[in-house]
């Protein structure tokens, strides 16, 4: 139902919006593209979701099963009900029960109804599950299109990350190493003529080497923090909480594959950084359960929207290859709750 919810959040309210939503599969290509951009899915998916909403088969089956089970219980308990009623008359399945023999006759009928209800329960559940899968599950074409988009996003993100690493190495550690080489060459030339000046250059070279090492460590930390390899996602999030001064609750008791841990960790880092920079929050909490569901909450000014900037959209692109879902609840005035769930992590 994410598509319908996204359309409502985008402001498609009132009769016109509803008519456009229903007519989207049959509308002109321009309208279909507009609906797809807002809903994040194809108009045919919207139509199937609306069909699922308009046909509450599960509710009807549940009401029928409950009526059958209650009728069975009433039949089994008819002798007791008749004894409590005294000399009065009772109705059971459109039949008047006016004596004890009739009350006992209702017992096997009620038992049969209970047996039928017991046998029908799993079949009703499977029928509703089948209907839900047929209407709400993505079609093969939609799935292929989604995988194509996420693969493209993953390749773009990988290329962007490689360019970032190359730029950081070129502008940071490489420049410092070039300066270090020049300082060592100058010190070598001055070693015999001016040992004091050569010593000063060596000290500067040592400081430059330490700065280059720090730059490289920061770069490695930005690619894959060592704490993530050593202590897993839970330990890395706890370390993040200590560094950032935020509250952290970890209920994750298992290790995840390294790509999943890295994606969740850097998502948490960006969400916490955004909250610290932009929300004006006095309290930020990070929680992760064994589901695996990551949740970052802050009591800031709220009003955050995925459509407003590239930060949350970038997170969506980062999570897409993992079938990740990012949900933002941020009313004006707060609080803001960002929930991240990776489908492949919970399996």
Automatic annotation (TrEMBL):
Q: Check the record and name the PANTHER family matching this protein.
A: NITRATE/NITRITE SENSOR PROTEIN NARX-RELATED, NITRATE_NITRITE SENSOR PROTEIN NARQ
Q: What is the lineage of its organism?
A: Bacteria, Bacillati, Actinomycetota, Thermoleophilia, Solirubrobacterales
**One GO CC annotation:** membrane
Kindly state which reaction or reactions the protein catalyses.
ATP + protein L-histidine = ADP + protein N-phospho-L-histidine
State if Transcription is listed as a keyword.
no
Instruction: Locate the transmembrane regions by residue number.
Output: 12-29, 50-80, 100-121
* Keywords from the named record: ATP-binding, Kinase, Membrane, Nucleotide-binding, Phosphoprotein, Transferase, Transmembrane, Transmembrane helix, Two-component regulatory system
One GO molecular function term of this record is: ATP binding
Does the UniProt entry include the keyword Phosphoprotein? yes
Domain Histidine kinase/HSP90-like ATPase per the UniProt entry, residue ranges: 263-342
Species name = Solirubrobacter phytolaccae
This one is known as histidine kinase
Q: Which InterPro entries match?
A: HATPase_C_sf, HATPase_dom, Sensor_HK_TwoCompSys, Sig_transdc_His_kin_sub3_dim/P
What EC number(s) does this enzyme carry?
A: 2.7.13.3
Domain Signal transduction histidine kinase subgroup 3 dimerisation and phosphoacceptor: from-to ranges: 161-228
């Amino acid at each position: 139902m994410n598509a319908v919810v996204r359309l409502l959040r985008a402001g498609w309210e009132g009769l016109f919006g509803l008519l456009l939503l229903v007519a989207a599969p049959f509308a002109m290509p321009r309208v279909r593209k507009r609906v797809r951009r807002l809903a994040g899915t194809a108009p045919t998916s919207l139509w199937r979701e609306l069909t699922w909403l308009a046909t509450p088969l599960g509710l009807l089956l549940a009401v029928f099963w409950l009526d059958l089970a209650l009728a069975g219980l009433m039949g089994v308990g008819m002798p007791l009900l008749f004894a409590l009623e005294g000399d009065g008359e009772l109705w059971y399945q459109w039949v008047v029960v006016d004596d004890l023999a009739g009350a006992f006759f209702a017992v096997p009928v009620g038992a049969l109804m209970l047996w039928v209800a017991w046998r029908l329960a799993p079949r009703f559940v499977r029928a509703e599950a089948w209907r839900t899968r047929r209407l709400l599950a993505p079609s093969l074409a939609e799935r292929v299109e989604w995988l194509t988009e996420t693969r493209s996003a993953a390749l773009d993100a990988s290329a962007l990350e490689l360019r970032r690493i190359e730029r950081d190495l070129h502008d940071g550690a490489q420049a410092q190493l070039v300066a270090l080489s020049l300082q060592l060459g100058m010190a070598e030339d001055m070693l015999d003529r001016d040992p004091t000046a050569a010593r000063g250059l060596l000290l500067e070279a040592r400081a430059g080497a330490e700065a280059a090492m720090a730059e490289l460590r920061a770069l490695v930390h930005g690619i894959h923090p060592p704490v993530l390899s050593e202590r897993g996602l839970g330990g890395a999030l706890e370390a993040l909480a200590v560094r950032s001064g935020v509250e952290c609750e970890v209920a994750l008791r298992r290790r995840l594959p390294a790509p999943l841990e890295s994606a969740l960790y850097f998502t948490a880092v960006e969400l916490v950084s955004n909250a610290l920079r932009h929300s004006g929050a006095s309290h930020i909490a990070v929680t992760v359960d064994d589901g695996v569901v990551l949740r970052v909450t802050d009591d800031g000014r709220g009003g955050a929207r995925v459509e407003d900037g590239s930060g949350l959209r970038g997170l969506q692109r980062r999570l897409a290859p993992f079938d990740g879902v990012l949900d933002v609840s941020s009313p004006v005035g707060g609080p803001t709750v960002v929930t991240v769930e990776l489908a492949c992590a919970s399996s």
